[in-house]
Amino acid sequence: MTTGKQLIKGNTAIVEAALDAGCRFYAGYPITPQNEIPETMSWRMPEEGGTFIQAESELISINMVFGASAAGARAMTTSSSPGISLMQEGISYMAGCELPAVLVNVMRGGPGLGNIAPSQSDYFQAVKPGHGDFHIITLAPHNISEMYDYTFDAFDLADKYRIPVMILADGLLGQLMENVELDRSRKPALLNAPKPWALTGASGRKGQRIVSLLMQPGALEKHNMDLNEKYNLIKKNETRHELAGMEKNPEYLIAAFGTCARISKGTMNIAADAGIKTGLFRPITLWPFPYEALKEAAKKVKKVFVFEMNLGQMVEDVRLAVGDDSKIEFYGRPGGGVPTAEELFEFIRGKVK
Amino acid sequence: MAEKIVYKKPDSLTDKIFSYCWGCGHSTVHKIIAELIDELGMREKTIAVAPVGCAVFAYDFWNFDTTEAAHGRAPVVATAIKRVHPGHLVFSYQGDGDLASIGMAEIIHTANRGENLTIIFINNTNYGMTGGQMAPTTLIGQKTTTSPAGRNIKQNGYPIKMSEMLAQFESVKYVERVKVTNAASVIKAKKAIKKGFLNQLNGTGFSFIEVLSACPANWRMEPLAAKAHIDGVISKYYPVGLIKDIK
Question: A242-352: which CATH architecture?
Answer without folding.
Answer: 3-Layer(aba) Sandwich (3.40)
